[in-house]
Design a protein that fits this description.
alpha/beta; Helicase, Ruva Protein, domain 3; 7-stranded mixed sheet; two-stranded antiparallel ribbon; 12 helices; 9 strands
C-alpha cells in the first residue's frame, strides 16, 4: 500500500475520485512524512491507545495512526471523503472506525463509554477557522482525554501557550492553560500541505491536567471574568468588568473586586495571571 505522505500518491487519489477541495471545510491535506511522524510522536501513540482523529481527509495521518495505535476512530464531516477512506486508502485496517459526522455534534462521551471508559488521545490536522470551538469543546466537556495533539495555525498555537504581558496572551491562553499543559512540538511551513495554506502552522500538544492549577468557586464565573477582560483588551479591567452583561456588576463592585485581589484600578486584563483572575472571580461567585 502506498503512503499518502508522498505527494504523487495524494494527487493520484484526488484525481481517481475527482475530489474537489471544499473551502467551507478548510481542507489542507498534509504531504510531509517527517511532520506526520512529529505529530504522532508528540501524541505518544502506542499499541495500548484508542485515538480519536478529527478530520482524517483522505487518510494520510490515519494510515500512520492505525499502524501505531490499538484502535482509531476517525470523524470526518465531508461525505465525499468517506468512500476514499473506506474503499481505498484505509481499507486494509481492521482497527479503524470511520464516522461521517461533524465533531462538534459527535457524542464523544458515548465513544469513550463504548470502549470501557478508557481515555482517548486526540490527534487532528484541524481546519483553522474552527480550531478554537473544537479544542474548547473537548476541554470544557471534561471528556476523558489524555492529550490533544493538533496541527493549528501558528499564531493560534502561540496564543494557546502565551503568558501574561505578551501580545498573544488572551482568553484562549487562559482557558487552555486552565485545563492543560501546552507544548509546541513543531512549526510547519506552508509547502507541507496540499493545497498550500496562506499561513504557517504549528503542532501543539495539550496534556490534560488531573486538576486545574487554581481552585475557584465557579468555573463559569471565572471564564465570564476572563471573557470580559479581553473583550476590549485595551480597556482598563475595572471598566471591562463593569461593562460585562454576564457579570452584571457596577463599576464600584468591580473596583472592590480588584482591591480585594490587591490590584490597582488602572490594571488591564493582559497583565494578570490565572491565579489573579481566579481571585477576582471568587469575589463575584
Amino acid at each position: 500500500m502506498a503512503y499518502l505522505s508522498d505527494p504523487k500518491e495524494t494527487i493520484e487519489i484526488l484525481q481517481k475520485y475527482h475530489f474537489m477541495f471544499q473551502k467551507k471545510f478548510g481542507q489542507n491535506f498534509l504531504i510531509d512524512a517527517h511532520v506526520l511522524d512529529k505529530i504522532v510522536d508528540a501524541a505518544g501513540v502506542t499499541k495500548e491507545d484508542v485515538v480519536l482523529e478529527i478530520g482524517p481527509g483522505i487518510g494520510t495521518m490515519t494510515q500512520v495512526l492505525c499502524e501505531r495505535a490499538k484502535e482509531v476512530i476517525a470523524v470526518e464531516i465531508d461525505k465525499n471523503l468517506i468512500p476514499i477512506l473506506r474503499e481505498d486508502t484505509c481499507r486494509e485496517y481492521d482497527n479503524l472506525t470511520i464516522i461521517n459526522d461533524d465533531i462538534l455534534k459527535t457524542d464523544v462521551d458515548a465513544l469513550v463509554r463504548e470502549r470501557g471508559g478508557r481515555p482517548l488521545k486526540v490527534v487532528a490536522n484541524l481546519p483553522y477557522y474552527i480550531t478554537t470551538p473544537i479544542v474548547m469543546g473537548l476541554l470544557e466537556r471534561h471528556i476523558p482525554v489524555v492529550n490533544i495533539t493538533v496541527m493549528v495555525q501558528r499564531e493560534v498555537a502561540e496564543r494557546m501557550q502565551a503568558g501574561p504581558g505578551s501580545k498573544d496572551y488572551g482568553a484562549l491562553s487562559l482557558a487552555v492553560q486552565y485545563y492543560a499543559d501546552t507544548y509546541i512540538a513543531a512549526y510547519v511551513p506552508q509547502n507541507c500541505f496540499m493545497p498550500r495554506p496562506n499561513v504557517g502552522s504549528a503542532v501543539i500538544r495539550l496534556s490534560l491536567r488531573e486538576k486545574p492549577p487554581v481552585e475557584v468557586k465557579s468555573e463559569a464565573v471565572l471564564f465570564a471574568v476572563i471573557r470580559a477582560a479581553f473583550a476590549q483588551r485595551r480597556k482598563m479591567l475595572v471598566n471591562s468588568l463593569a461593562g460585562s452583561s454576564e457579570l452584571a456588576c457596577t463599576k464600584e463592585q468591580a473596583s472592590e473586586a480588584l482591591a480585594a485581589a490587591g490590584l490597582p484600578e488602572t490594571v488591564r486584563g493582559e497583565a494578570l495571571t490565572l491565579e489573579q483572575f481566579a481571585e477576582i472571580a471568587d469575589h463575584f461567585a
